[in-house]
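Why do we care about 3D structure at all? Because function follows from shape, and shape follows, mostly, from sequence. That is the central idea of this module. The next example makes it concrete: a single protein chain, its amino acid sequence, and then its structure expressed as tokens.
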Amino acid sequence: MSVPNLIAALALSLIFSPCLASEAGGETEIPRYFYTGTLDGRYPIQMELDQSNGTTPWQGHYFYASPKSLGERIQLNGLVDDQGQFQFSEFVEKGEEKTITGNFGGTFSPDRQEMRGHWHSADGKRNMPFELRLVARYRQRTAARDIRAEKTDDLPCPCPDPVKDEKDHCICRATASRIYPVLLGAESNALRGALEKQDLLTLELKGDEEDQGESETDVTLAYHSTSLISLEINSYSYAWGAAHGMPGIAGLNLAGSPETGLRELKLKDLINTDRQCLGRINAAIMESLRKQDVPAVTEPQEWSIDLTRLYNRSFLVHPGALTFIFNPYEVGPYAIGIIKAAVPLHVYAECIPAKSALAGFKPAD
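And the structure:
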């Protein structure tokens, strides 16, 4: 399902007058970057850094891009000075407790195309050099439209912060935002074409019912290589007057080349989807959900989970795992949020055909 359809399916609508007052928007590059490289010359890592909220410190994450890893994101924050020198601390959070586990220190090249330095463990006992190169920048498209919304007995003014509040109606501002990566070099056009095909760059504020409120889509790189790209598509929609907004995540996995273009990969394109292989993956998903105390597993009388159509479920690709996504209300109440279930490579390694884009991740016999 494309993200615009996902947003439409999640949005709650109200009845408004379609009279439009004004419209504004644009597209800009934002200070958000994606790097790939190695730690100690032998451990592949990928890192995203972000200061698009305009605050200090910088935020971000990195993960090990190895078949021996599940690709868990390790959170980062830190500072960059005017000379391009940086200090980023990595940390893990459990509840309200934050534990620093290491630090990246080094220097950006003048054009921010490269970053070099050393990683130190928090106790100072380990020290490894790292080198990373920039593979993508991010851009943001925005649109806003002022809409005349009729007042009702139940909703004197449907939007929380009206531009104007008059006797019989309000002027409410509908907004839409799309953030997406722009790859460097020859890959750039191929990725943009794939995003356009999925309608992930489209901004529409028509003034009809299903577009009222806020609509945000953030397409981020979940994994990048020259032959395989995995995108995590975070969406959020809020309809004026609704009890809460609705987040969602979809995965989009692509393979190809700048010459042939990028094509979308379904699960059946990556592994054999016979009963035995899907059964292994189902069992691993259930085990992951059980460890996360997901209500669909711990309270089956109240919640259910349907894995019979696993081949249609959204997922992300990493060299060491396939991560399946469960959006709000799919395996529990809204309060538990979005759940991810990572299935390790060893579970499905024997199910990977020789021509699969995952074949290079299989361990040697």
